[in-house]
Amino acid sequence: MERTYQVLRVDDCMYAARHSGLWRIDPDGAQRNLFANWRAANDTPALCVATKGDTLLAGVQGGVARSFDGGDNWEVCAFRLPAPLVTCLCLGADCLLAGTFADGVFRSTDAGATWQAYNHGLFDHSVNCLALSPRFADDGAVYAGTSTGIYCSHNGGRLWQDMHVGSGRENVLCLAAAEDGALYAGCEAHGLLRIAAARVEPIEVGAGAVNGLALTAAGLAVQLDDRVVASQHAGASWRTLADGVDCLALAGDALLLGMADGQIVTVPAADDLWKQDNGLLKG
Question: How does pLDDT run across 216-229, given as a tens digit for each residue?
């Protein structure tokens, strides 16, 4: 099966954003491409997926695809021309944010029906990832990882500031904001970074690009190239959880791993699992 870009759990079902469209995986393991009956799709890739109440959203070429009936029917909420490629979605309490491949950040306040670009202060419009502060409802903080660094907004994505991380040329692939105020950033060439109180601290995790991050009660999980490693000690030591991974996500108290063979594997993020061998652990 083709590459999985993102996985998301909603109640008992899982959704996988894949090159062939948006797939739903039912509790019995049955998989269905929700774009299959959408004539406008024409094998449209879904690069990201999110939910807002009863609305299902998927990032596609030209805007965001939206469904109100679990994926049976779709409409495209188009962005301005030229049509951008939506790479990531971020849902706040009163707004939706979408990052794009080359057109910056778009914002919606009507559940995705209309979108407006908000790029003031965002000097790099190649947005790879977005992350909300755990206290977004109070502080309005949101972070954007771009091809040259990290930008922060303190007003819900309407105005951006360069955080001046590293040399200013960090290709940031993923972000995770911690409850203690620290921000973790996964980079293509410079591994894993922790940013707190304007201080940037490299965390040694091994050679490779950090493509995914998950902060759990048990510790930190990192997708390093195509394997997932975990640490219970803030990066002091690491253990391999799985190999052959396309993407990593956190769902409640579990990790969701989109595997290269198309499977979606659930790994309970419990202390004892991260310490012991089992059918999934590789090292």
Answer: 877 899 999 999 99
The CA-CA-CA angle for residues 279, 260, 218, to 5°, reads: 50
Check whether the bond before 82 is cis (ω within 30° of 0).
yes
From CA 135, how far away is CA 118, in angstroms rounded?
A: 21
- Alpha-carbon distance of 283 to 280, in angstroms, equals 10
SS3 label, residue 144: strand
| DSSP state for residue 84 in the 8-state scheme | P
Q: Does pLDDT of 173 surpass 90?
A: yes
| Three-class DSSP category at 272 | helix
Tokens representing 133 are: 């502060």
pTM above 0.85, yes or no: yes
Residue type, 77: C
What span, in angstroms and rounded, lies between the C-alpha atoms of 117 and 134?
24
Token duo for residue 174: 């993923």
